[in-house]
Write a sequence for this structure.
């Protein structure tokens, strides 16, 4: 029962527009600047892709380092 209450509170918290429409200052500035110059989202899209790609790149590097250092098990 307690899990359901926490789940419902979390869903309500995320669905309230005042809480779910938060943006970082940099993204908001780029979006407003792009809207004024006519190239809507040109800089914003490349920034989002850059920020999205870095964690995946770090995970791949970590996986490869772990895989290369993993000891082999002999039966």
């Amino acid at each position: 029962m307690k899990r359901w209450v926490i789940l419902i509170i979390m869903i309500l918290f995320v669905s309230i527009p005042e809480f779910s429409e938060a943006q970082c200052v940099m993204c908001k500035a780029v979006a407003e600047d792009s809207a004024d110059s006519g190239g809507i989202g040109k800089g914003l899209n490349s920034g989002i892709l850059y920020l999205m790609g870095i964690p995946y790149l770090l995970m791949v590097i970590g996986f490869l380092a772990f895989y290369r250092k993993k000891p082999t098990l002999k039966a």
Remarks:
- The mean pLDDT is 75.
